[in-house]
Amino acid sequence: AAAAGSFSLREVLEAFQRCVTEQREVLMEPYLRGWRGLIRFLQSLGTVFSFISKDAVAKVSLLEGHCGGRQGQQYVSLQSMVRHELAAGPAALRARSDSGCRTVLRLHRALRWLQLFLEGLRSGDSRTSVVCTDAYNASLAAYHPWVIRKAATVAFCALPSRDAFLEIMNVGPREEAVAMLGEAIPYIGDVYSITQELFAQHKLLDLP
User: Which residues form the Glycolipid transfer protein domain (predicted)?
Assistant: First the structure.
């Protein structure tokens, strides 16, 4: 078992497994639990990913505030959140910097990077720095200013080896970590796809 407060891939797998209902709704509570696990993964790698992990911590906390607030019943799922926040009108939603939709969108973009990065780790065809840079360039880089992009790609050069990453997964031997990544990634990908489709349908993919 993983030590208290440390990353466990199994916990992330179980959280994302529970995210999607039979009606293809994404439940907020397991979504945020999965994200807390992914944040522990980022934090276990030291300062390299702090520019992403600190932002994710703030976003998860903001969403937890919505879920635990007076309107908490409106934030049971991503779908109910979108319906609730759009009820005030698109202009009102775009004017809110603390909206759940805007906050989820930022996590959604980072989830795509993590999905691609974990896929690259599982296949193990390239150095981790290359895998991480390719994943970043295909996802988050488009939303970061040049200074952050440059700093990120330099930081990725200091990433540990693939074996070190698989050890961080806290699930036993390397083969077990690779197998569990193969199990977890489709669930993460499913949550990503449903969110992408939902936000595209309501024209929310470019919220400021």
Answer: 27-170
